[in-house]
Amino acid sequence: MRQYSALPHRPLRPHTRFHTPSQTLPPRVTLEDPAIAVMTDFQKVTAFTIDPGVSVDTAARVMRRRHVHLLLVVDVENHLLGIITSTDLLGEKTLQCISARGIAREDALVRDIMTPESRIEVIAMDDVMHAHVGHVVATLKATGRRHAAVVDEDASGHQILRGLFAASQLAQQLGEPVDTMAVAHTFAEISAALKA
User: Fold this and answer.
1) SS3 state of residue 93
2) pLDDT over 60 at 97, yes or no
3) What is d(CA 128, CA 125) in angstroms, rounded to the nearest whole number?
4) Which range, of 72-76, 93-97, 148-152, averages the lowest pLDDT?
5) What is the average pLDDT score of the chain?
6) Which domains does the chain have, with CATH numbers?
């Protein structure tokens, strides 16, 4: 049997970074390009997750470190419980939670301000495969959201989160801003927006 010698080793240098998977995206797209070209595909990149019991400040640090604006909130078995965005962390949701519960910011938890899975609307991967970038932009504008989730189905027919569309990534790849401000369509919506 062949004898193998140990590989040479050396000390780890300070400030060493580590590799992370990256999805190669086309640098520029047009509204006519395939929608899949602007989707963050979880078959190609790691989805960043967080526990619901973590503080909102910790979630903000994770987003900054990972250079993302959205985290998937999952349980110990990696079932999706909801999502949390940088807008949630820095906006009204956190302030309303702190005020309503009479707590300090450091006591506000991800579960308190996340969007629960029951309120997340998704797009089918089959629809994405036949869509263009322009369809994605129109969808984000119509919903007034900065992100859209895409689902696939496994062999048993259960939904699997396949990927995400993000307005920030769209803007970067299109080379122009993507404004997704919610548009109130009825008097009741306008009234509700003014009271918020």
Assistant:
1) helix
2) yes
3) 5
4) 93-97
5) 87
6) 35-195 (3.10.580.10)
